[in-house]
Amino acid sequence: MRIERVLLKDYTTLGVGGPAELWTVETQEDLLKATEAPYRVLGNGSNLLVMDEGVPERVIRLAGEFATYDLRGWVGAGVLLPLLVQEAARQGLSGLEGLLGIPAQVGGAVKMNAGTRFGEMADALEAVEIFHEGRFHIYLPQELGFGYRQSRLPPGGIVTRVRLKLKERPLEEIRRRMAEVDAARKGQPKRKSAGCAFKNPPGHSAGRLIDERGLKGLRVGDAMVSLEHGNFIVNLGQATAKDVLELLKRIQEELPLELEWEVWP
Ligand code: FAD
Ligand code: EPU
Question: What CATH number is given to the structural domain containing 242?
Answer without folding.
Answer: 3.90.78.10
